[in-house]
Amino acid sequence: MRIIVEEDYESMSKRAALFVASQVILKPDSVLGLATGSTPLGMYKELIEMYQRSEVDFSEVITFNLDEYYQLPHDDAQSYHYFMKENFFKHINIKEYNTHLPDGMAADIEEECRKYERAIESSGGIDLQVLGIGENGHIGFNEPAEKLNVYTGLVNLTEETIKVNSRFFSSVEEVPTKAVTVGMGTILKAKRIILLASGEKKAEAIRDTVNGHVTTQVPSSFLQLHPDVTLILDKAAASLL
Ligand code: PGA
């Protein structure tokens, strides 16, 4: 596991954007695994600026997002479909048909999950996976539990995650209690992984990711088993290392 510690959120975001841009410059038809949440927002902003300066071209890039809430319409301002469109896709030259998110509105959710796995596989697999991390060590919506899913599936969100994510909703009752997430196996099959974390609230999860036992109670600890993972942290997130 490689660990890069940057001074603050802005330099962490710049460093992460350079990783993604380098990947796309070296392989213009890269398959990127993307994440939502507050953490990667700065990285997306940097990438948009790099695109505007013609430093990176997304015309051949294919993307697969990690997760989506269950039964939240795509045009809902809290859906991850909406997040990706507003914060990244509509500002760059990516082709809409090359962007993928799990469809939490699908009538047959199990078939949707199988379809998502097949689509990742037939694209050739994820070249670079971008991850955030939950305060509880979740990656995607793979929550701490006795067992973790290997493949994309419908999962229950933990009370902690619902509480943490309620900051985006008008009340905690409005937060969906289920989500579709790519599984741990799918994440670990990515050729390269970068994980971004910022702020003191993530310090314990980062400590357990790097120095803890590999345990389903800290899903991010499984990253220790992957041969090409880089953590890009700010000083606060790295403060317990
Ligand atoms: P955050 O979420 O970037 O909004 O902290 C990360 C996550 O829960 O995976």
Radius of gyration: 17 Å
Give the CATH class.
Answer: Alpha Beta
Q: How much helicity do the residues have?
A: 25-40%
Shape: globular
Order of strands, main sheet, comes to 1-10-9-6-2-3-5
- Helical stretch count? 7
Beta-strand proportion: 15-25%
**Ligands, ions, cofactors:** 2-phosphoglycolic acid
Q: How many domains make up the coordinates?
A: 1
CATH architecture: 3-Layer(aba) Sandwich
- Going by helix content, strand content and strand pairing, the class is alpha/beta
Helix/strand order: EHEHEEHEHEEHEHEHE
Mean pLDDT: 97
Low-confidence stretches: none
CATH topology: Rossmann fold
Largest sheet: 7 strands, parallel
Secondary structure topology:
Blueprint lengths: L1 E5 L2 H18 L4 E4 L6 H12 L9 E4 L1 E3 L10 H8 L11 E2 L8 H14 L5 E4 L21 E4 L2 H7 L12 E4 L2 H5 L3 E6 L5 H9 L17 E6 L7
Parallel strand pairs: 1-10, 2-3, 2-6, 3-5, 6-9, 9-10
Antiparallel strand pairs: 4-8, 7-8
Bound molecules: 2-phosphoglycolic acid.
